[in-house]
Protein 1
Amino acid sequence: MPGTCIIGLQWGDEAKGKIVDLFTREHDIVVRYQGGANAGHTVVVGGEVYKLSLLPSGVLTPGVTCVIAGGVVMNPAKAIEELDELAARKVQDFDNLLLSDRLHVIFPWHFAEDRAMDRNTSDGENIGTTGRGIGPCYRDKVGRSYAVRLGDMYRDTFPDQVRHIVTEKNRVLASMLPAEEFKPLDADAILREYRAYAERLQPYVTDTTEFLLTAAEKGKRILFEGAQGALLDVDHGTYPFVTSSNSSGVGISNGSGVPGKYIKLVMGVVKAYSTRVGGGPFPTEQDNAIGQRIRDQGNEYGTVTKRPRRCGWLDAVAVRYTARLSGVDSICIMLLDVLSGFDELKICTAYEIDGQRTTVFPSHVDEIRKVKPIYETLAGWQEDLTGARSMEDLPVAAHEYLDRISQLLNLPVELVSVGPDRAQTIPVLAGSSLSV
Ligand code: GDP
Ligand code: IMO
Ligand code: MG
């Protein structure tokens, strides 16, 4: 069974980091394959909190090889900052990190473009990006003329490449930004900064596609760590309010270079309710006291940007769609403890659009904006769940809530999470390989 994948099925922040950390010990390799430092994955080990944006959440398990594959867009300063932080906290020595020479590098012009573009969306609502230069870097990757891959930074042509790009980007930024905000980029300063990054990261840079293909052929156990959530997928999500990569299960092969035949298990990570950061439609949003209560109880503030997350009820229409899209085999239901204390809970089981009932997730943002959610109401529970360690510890109403989710998605529940710590996890699926 070489390949296991962890995919968020909502709009990100489903607690993928916790799941990756839990399953890492059963794998030889953990791979980040899309996105970049827009991700913020939290792992809590023995009360110590680690927040990872670029390094795979597997870094907290010694002996596992961590790979940042070619589909990632990397801010080298951020990678170095995370390496330094983990070294300072004496987690482990990083002779087991591999960075793809194919991955695209984020430069200062990408941050400037990200800030400038986000206030210029044509339909009036901002995407509300994380400001990490992700979209502009992917745009340059696809455009090809102004892109830099990590492997380029070790070539004699790198200085000329940067000078050429800076000339063009200064022209573009001057036209995008108000005159008082435009500060011309200095190619020599950027070169000095990025040469230092290149030198520092050189020991880790390699052809990770070849490494992963060989590992898969040898039957090594590879864990693929999805970033963002499937509803933010650039092709299949709530476009244009999405990120710029394939964050659903369809992105695993193109981001890592490992073909689908090696992927044997896909686990979908689902919050027991819904959250979204940034703009875009959110059919089950509770922009009211219920949403505020979920935000308070779940501490729903962004890991990366600290923005308050928008909160709402679980949307089974959306999650059923993303689970099918991602080829999910089982689901992990996270943050169940956050729902304690509600008299009743709601799950959206169908949509009404223009008076028509449907369970199909619409492809166009205008239709998603029109959705009136059709809810099913279930009994809530009052008990604190954070100490529960087996299904017997959960109240009947929590069992009924979990059963209904499983039924609506037509998928088995792999585990239930009742707190951030590794120990606050309840294995559910008979024969689950999870040994917490
Ligand atoms: P990711 O981006 O999908 O890895 O998720 P984030 O780390 O951005 O957000 C998930 C947050 O929920 C983190 O602060 C986790 O420590 C926390 N968390 C994870 N599982 C649970 C849980 O079962 N209950 C509670 N209350 N918090 C959890
Ligand atoms: P993790 O991996 C939640 C959202 C942003 C914005 C949109 C586009 O922690 O789940 P981008 O900077 O990617 O161009 O922003 O996507 N977004 C996330 N929301 N969790 C994330 O990552 C996210 N990464 C991006 O808020 O709405
Ligand atoms: Mg996150």
Note: The mean pLDDT is 95.
Protein 2
Amino acid sequence: MQVTKTFKRIIFLELSIPVALLTIGIYHGLMQTIYRAGVLRDTSFFKLDYYQGLTLHGVINAIVLTTFFAVAFGHVTMAFYMKKEPNKNLMWLSFFLKVTGTLMAAWAMLAGKASVLYTFYPPLKAHPLFYLGAALLIVGSWVPLFDWARMYSRWKKENPTVKTPLAVLGTLINFIIWFVCTLAVAYEVLVLLIPWSMGWTKGVNVSLARTLFWFFGHALVYFWLLPAYIMFYTILPKVAGGKLYSDLAGRIALFLFLLFSIPVGVHHQYSDPTIAQGIKFFHGMLTYGVAIPSFITAFTLAASLEYAGRKNGAKGLFGWMKKLPYFDESRYLFAYFICGLILFIFGGVTGIVNASYSLNNVIHNTAWLPGHFHMTVAGPVFLSIVGMSLYLYSTMSGKKVFMRKVATIVPYLWMIGMLIFSFGMSWGGLRGEPRRTNLGVTYLNPESGLYRPDWVPTTTLALCGGIIMFIAGMLFIVVFFGTILKKKTAEGALDIPVAEAYHDEKRVALFDKFKPWLVTMVIIICLAYIPALMSVNKNSGPEAPRFDPNNPVPIETVTK
Ligand code: HAS
């Protein structure tokens, strides 16, 4: 499909700005493993503080990259399947809001005025521009939803009996989840944090802020995941050489995400004393509910891949696994997808452990957690984002991928690094190794009385994995920008591989309309969150004053 120059320009900018920022994000990832392994026994390196680096790492990789990509991929999906480009003025508006927000937050982080990590829990206080920047980034990502909804309703009127393309359904569901969940964090930022950070209000209700954050925070992880799932359902079977085993299974999974992505946030707060046990248990049960669409996805994708393998001549029960195009350079996207999926098997299993109300006590706030989430957000999410960014740039610009062999090997290198890193982190977590801690100054420093020799092997493994991932990440940056610098060899076009469905499933009306699902979504959210907010309101202690991340004494006392 041919698209206009303006459309291409916006998409290229939305893909390349976050990939450029990745250099900073990935560098700080490596630095984390170096500090934690005790190789560096200091609180800062090159004038960048440990927590400043960790904040940059989390915000750039988990918030900026994912949000820019979700919007760009949404534009591309809507344009490709609706055969119509979104409104250019709104595309630019969304882009500028996101860029302005990112620049504001980046200034605050680089100036050392917002070392509050990507969760920005109070009473750690950031500069108001950090919160404002985050809010602008979010508002910028809301804008396209309204335009896509308009495009979709027009398309629906013209095609009342045609099944909504799965990728369009997924994009709309993802951005509805995003819109609803971000309302809570917008309230947290605008009403609680900014006035408190400016000094207009004396204290902040920490428990309420955390509860509002996690209303947003867990849905956020599915906002990261769904673009990857859209690619797995609609593109992967095609590049594997097969068909999608069931389109209906994909629809069911997507609607289940709409129901269960938000009302599970309290599973991040099992240890918060202000929330009653029964509420935690209910959120725990719903968390098992949100794992169901991923189980559906695992079986549907495995069946689709098995079909592809058998079509390629595979025999026996598991022979199909050997007949997939792992190193086929002309189908390099496959490598990004399959490595992400393999990592997600472990990311999923560790997530189920986290969800257990009792087992969570063992791993909460330990290194196990980064072990878990790197195999999710830095697994299927990251790999499909970078793989697809490269694919979209190359096909839309008409430029061949630079060092295609390297581009195909990068995801395997990343996966190996990630498996080693996450194994080290998970093992360390089970031995009590804390997350978000500069272990080098104490626990991994033999000169410290707190030295823990049993954490040497675990942190060393994480360091080895970190180095391999850093190399893979940098190779990707070379491939991506090398491609940008290449000369055009063809007329660029928007061309996405589309997987055919294996079964000719009839259109089921329930899985092709939003209203019943939206109503159910609201009911479940109310059931899960009204009691949680009442509990927080009843049990919260005094409000907290402002704290600087580098000082255990409140700011007001320090300055007096
Ligand atoms: Fe999680 C904490 C529970 C999924 C991200 N999670 C986090 C944090 C992050 C995160 C960032 O219940 C830390 C937040 C912080 O900073 O404090 N998580 C779950 C559960 C799932 C889950 C039950 N998480 C994700 C995803 C993420 C993500 C997805 C990012 C994208 N998580 C938790 C809990 C906590 C938590 C607690 C809080 C813990 C605490 O104490 O603080 C589920 O959605 C997982 C379901 C997944 C599966 C796997 C399906 C497998 C597939 C692959 C199939 C492979 C094939 C290939 C087909 C059931 C689809 C086969 C072919 C071959 C050739 C082999």
Note: The first strand starts at residue 44 and ends at 45.
